[in-house]
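Note to self: keep these together.
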Amino acid sequence: MDNVLHKLRKLDAYPKVNEDFYSRTFSGGLITLVSFVLMLFLFFSELRLFLHTVSETKLVVDTSRGGTLHINFDVTFPAVPCSLLSLDAMDISGEQHLDIRHDIVKKRIDAHGNVIEVRQDGIGAPKVEKPLQRHGGRLEHNEEYCGSCYGSETSDDDCCNSCEEVREAYRKKGWALTNMDMIDQCKREGFIQKIKNEEGEGCNINGVLEVNKVAGSFHFGTGKSFHDSNVQLHNLLAFQDDNYNITHRINKLSFGHYFPGLINPLDGVQWVHENPNGAYQYFIKVVPAIFTDIRGRTIQSNQYSVTEHFRSADPGRSRSLAGVFFFYDISPVKVTFKEEHIPFLHFMTHICAIIGGIFTVAGIIDSFVYHGQRVVKKKM
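Structure:
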């Protein structure tokens, strides 16, 4: 047994020195104090990092199929009246949504940016005692109203009872409705007068689009869209000017829900119209993202990158479209963000490294200082 204990004593890596041989110096005390303060500072720095969450990022292939994409937008047009501003969306699957009004709110603003009126999109038709019938006469007693579509009917039973229905019928035909004064429904609803009353105003439009999760586009244009030979055009009313000021500010544009650390590069972007007419285009690459917080809660969202381009109107082309266009494509790569703490063993390893490292370096410095002092004393 004594032999075993003797061998264990030989393995002692910390040999003890009798206190009678200790030599304490002022420089050693100063180095010890500095080392202790430095240890405390680094310890609390590591503790703060340990308590703070870090985000681990990974790139994986997006194998999900189908689904929808939520587009949140808030855009201000200082020089386009709300009555002339429309929103359209389409995608490569062939799905089209023209003059979108669901979940869309427009705010009329004056030249100083003050809100004049907040309303859901659409003008609405007031009740009229005797509106004009399709046969040219006025509505009589017990007679059901059926307004004329002014040549755009697809059958004898079609009726257009409001200005909006006439415009929709013309859009389906691919015709431009250029003489609004001749449309009885538009006159009795005060459509033309309403637009004239909004001259010099701007419009803030905000809302949510829910589209297929495929490549597509949406745009804000001046007028109401229609299609002619698979080419998208706009129903530019007769009382509009030839040039359209599409100066705009994107207050918000996101694809999906917000999560901590998300940056939308178009938020707060402003573009001032300088060239006469034309279309401003944004080409967006949408990257699916999944964020998981420290509690395990998951948020499905998207990030995006963007490039910009202004396409001026062709001088000899009468069908040039003024507006702001957003073309988006879906990336096949998905980014995952996961919040987590530094493992406790890593934390303990760093603490031990701090204590051991500072203690060793301080010992080396103290040894050099002590031997230097002894050399100076011998020379004296």
